[in-house]
Write a structure and sequence with these properties.
Strand order of the largest sheet: 1-2-7-5-4-8-9
Strand content: 25-35%
Radius of gyration: 19 Å
Helix content: 10-25%
Distance between the termini: 42 Å
CATH architecture of the largest domain: 3-Layer(aba) Sandwich
Number of helices: 6
Number of domains: 2
CATH superfamily of the largest domain: Glutaredoxin
CATH class of the largest domain: Alpha Beta
Order of helices and strands: EEEEEEEEEHHHEHEEEHEEH
Length: about 325
């Protein structure tokens, strides 16, 4: 049996939100499926925890396998207890969730609309959502879809007492990830695209280890992704964005890509990816981490992100002294 089980959040045949998912008890972290459902919601954010403002994202699927894209929708959260002690929904935070497209796909200029996966694909993201207790939470989505009217969806997800993965405010792990100088590793373990392309397409993202960046006191933007084997089809576009940022902001940080798989066919993870993201037979990707010059994680993004938000974070860093 594979060490990582893919839940396969199928968004309109494109595998838009497929991700490695937990084997633990979760009432519904897959798209909600109900008789005569007008809309289904698929959580795109994992590792939510108590007491800190976080981003929460979900993808929206219509019954005919079209997606809801563009504009914004309303998120309302309710606490529904634990597996041992379920309770009636207790009101929690609410937020406006804004559409975040997959890099390279249109952002749209109007309100929420029905689209084919070939036309647009992305998630809706709410900012600064804080959960006040651990257990299961319910997300209710209200979307006013052009030409269809108001559509609603509901799904349930776990919130932990503490973050399972490294989180903002914590020290970064001193990881010796693979680089172009790792003679004991096949190129495909450095970047999965080398399996088909015969070479690593972004060697500039494979020059530094996280451990070296921490030792030298350099900020680092680190993307954990597997461009070839990522079922969501997010990893390649996300990694390309980080490669572009590396060419524009090399004076602010070092840029690192950590490939997930050392041997996909044998289901062997790279040690660096496992150290950061493998917990209880569960791993999700892609993730993007920003580490400051003191070695502290200052931000992280799950699944998708707005490039301008990452740029603002990079531009807030002081320029590095010396050449990277």
């Amino acid at each position: 049996m594979r060490a990582v089980r893919r839940l396969g959040l199928l968004l309109a045949m494109s595998l838009l939100l497929a991700a490695c998912a937990s084997d633990g008890e979760t009432p519904s972290d897959a798209p909600t499926t109900q008789p005569n459902a007008q809309l289904s919601a698929a959580m795109a954010t994992s590792d939510l925890y108590v007491g800190a403002p976080q981003r929460v994202s979900a993808g929206l699927i219509l019954p005919d396998n079209e997606l809801v894209s563009f504009g914004s929708v309303d998120f309302t959260f309710s606490y529904v207890g634990t597996a041992q002690d379920p309770v009636d929904p207790q009101p929690g935070p609410s937020a406006v969730a804004v559409y975040v497209p997959t890099p390279g796909t249109p952002e749209g200029s109007g309100g929420a609309a029905a689209t084919l996966p070939s036309e647009a694909r992305g998630v809706y993201q709410a900012e600064d959502v804080t959960f006040d207790r651990a257990g299961f939470w319910q997300l209710d989505v209200t979307a006013d879809v052009q030409g269809l009217g108001v559509r609603r969806a509901r799904t349930t997800f776990p919130v932990l007492e503490d973050a399972a993965y490294p989180a903002p405010g914590e020290p970064a792990l001193e990881t010796e990830n693979l680089t172009m100088d790792s003679a004991d590793a096949p190129l495909g373990a450095v970047d999965s695209r080398a399996v088909s392309e015969g070479e690593v397409p972004d060697p500039e993202l494979h020059e530094w280890t996280i451990a070296r960046a921490l030792e030298e006191g350099r900020p680092a933007l680190v993307v954990f992704s597997t461009p070839v084997y990522c079922a969501s089809q997010f990893c390649g576009p996300v990694t390309d964005v980080v490669q572009d940022l590396a060419s524009r902001y090399s004076d602010r940080a070092v840029f690192i890509h950590v490939e997930i798989w050392r041997d996909f066919d044998g289901q062997v993870l790279n040690r660096a990816a496992a150290d950061w993201l493998f917990r209880d037979d569960n791993l999700t990707e892609p993730w993007l981490y920003l580490i400051d010059g003191d070695g502290t994680i200052v931000d992280r993004w799950a699944t998708l992100f707005r490039e301008e938000e990452v740029v603002a974070r990079l531009e807030s860093l002081p320029r590095m002294k010396g050449n990277a």
